[in-house]
# Entry
Amino acid sequence: MRTVISLDEFRAARLALPGSVGLVPTMGYLHEGHLSLIRRAREECNSVVVSIFVNPTQFGANEDLSKYPRDLARDLSLIEPLGVDLVWNPTPEIMYPPGFQTWVEVEVLTRPLEGTIRTSHFKGVATVVAKLFNAVQPHKAYFGQKDAQQAAVIRQMVRDLNFPIEISVCPTLREADGLAMSSRNKYLEGPDRAAATILFRALSAAKAAYEAGERNAEKLRTLMKDMLASEQRAQPQYVSCADYDTLEELDLIHGKTLLSMAVLIGRTRLIDNFVLN
Ligand code: PAF
# Structure
């Protein structure tokens, strides 16, 4: 496994990779969820590239960029045994040189849900992912279902900008008690850790109601909100029952549907979702 920093070094190493290339873009501080994406890429592609870059442009002014957990040595030791060929760990100056002024903005899909609170987040995500796609030129790229809106935004960008890349969205990995794996779970301390399972419990309750025949989307939103209200430490930011592809809120459920939510547990912001088919 080779780890490189500069764009020139990366390009030279990329050119030497044989066959189909799978890219797993990450911001580091890897957990089992990331490792499952890497394993999938290893199964499906001849060569595997992992990028590790904490992308400053997807953090809002009041978000946790400087506190975002980082541990490159730990990340490398976790991915080395998985047969990764090349790791790219660029600096912010490499990705955003002085005078940088070109952005990728996906319009309608970035407005609801996360977009209502993190207004410039997806501009940063789409721009950095487009830059990674240009540098890596992968055949396939792997993302987690936990960031469902991010996956939808990237699929849209790939269609709109004609990237010849297959986007693979892989299942959310969970802790034994249902909490979705996330680098931010590190911030959950003391009673916040147990309280954080309320997202999974609320989503599970809505899914059970759906499976029992409930098709009224507002009833499912209310059910999830009521469950969240039962946890004192939980402050919901949004609770949604939306069309899986357009992310528009539904009245009546028909077809593939995304149940999703963002909730503050203490000072930690968590998101989670279930897909109803
Ligand atoms: O999901 C993430 O970790 C990031 O948003 C991504 C896709 C690596 C872009 O910085």
About this structure: The chain has two domains: 2-170, 183-276. The longest strand covers residues 234-243. The mean pLDDT is 98. The longest helix spans residues 121-136.
